[in-house]
Specification:
By secondary structure, the chain is α/β, with parallel strands linked by helices. It is built from 8 helices and 7 strands; from the N terminus they run αααβαβαβαβαβαββ. A 7-stranded mixed sheet has the order 3-2-1-4-5-7-6, with helices on both faces. The chain is globular and about 40 Å long.
Length: 210
């Protein structure tokens, strides 16, 4: 048994709703790159602990992370940014079947365009989850900080990238983008942060009170 299996065997119970999402992605020929079960549980716990109620995720895919986020608070609302309409449609179906109808709004198109509009609308959030194209992680972080309420949490997935972020000589664009993201979060004067080696890595940051 490896470390991941050990954690899952103790702390993650069988979850038919979330397993159904993975099955649906496989059947539709879509990428099965949702957060790991243990990462999803941590997202739920972080929403509960923080008391966050206005949530934003960048990257909906099949709705796996959206359900995990909404499980954290009975009155939380989620804005989900998704490039592909087919992904958003699947996510919406799964989220509604999980009992969260009318608690998510989807914005379709390039996430940077949606973030620019949210900034123009002066909407703020107290919890962010980034799980989309790695090359824009730093840009997404900049917008999240601008849209964040004091004390907001900003979580990014895949920040270990299968351990590739340890390779100082990498030429892979995604790996280099994630290395840059982790360094920026670690050094950012407005953030207090830590990379948690759970799943494929979750970098957790908190916006300091202004």
């Amino acid at each position: 048994m490896n470390l991941e299996s050990y954690i899952q065997s103790l702390f993650v119970q069988k979850d038919e709703e979330l397993e159904k999402i993975t099955d649906s992605l496989l059947q539709a020929g879509m990428p099965t790159i949702s957060v790991s079960p243990e990462s999803g549980k941590l997202l739920t716990l972080l929403v509960k602990i923080s008391g966050a109620q206005n949530l934003l995720e960048i990257g909906a895919l099949g709705g796996y992370s959206g359900i995990c986020l909404l499980r954290g608070d009975d009155i939380a609302n989620l804005t989900s940014l998704e490039l592909h309409e087919t992904y958003a449609d699947m996510a919406k179906q799964h989220v509604e079947e999980a009992g969260f109808k009318d608690r998510v709004r989807y914005k379709i198109g390039p996430a940077l365009d949606s973030l620019k509009q949210l900034k123009r609308d002066r909407i703020t959030y107290d919890f962010f989850f980034i799980d989309a194209d790695k090359g824009n992680y730093v840009n997404y972080l900049d917008y999240c900080i601008q849209l964040a309420s004091p004390g907001a949490l900003i979580i990014a997935d895949n920040t270990l990238w299968g351990g590739e972020v340890l390779n100082e000589h990498t030429e892979n664009k995604d790996t280099k983008a994630l290395q840059t993201y982790n360094r920026k979060v670690a050094d950012h004067p407005q953030l207090e942060s830590l990379l948690v080696p759970l799943g494929d890595g979750l970098t957790i940051a908190r916006l300091k009170s202004k």
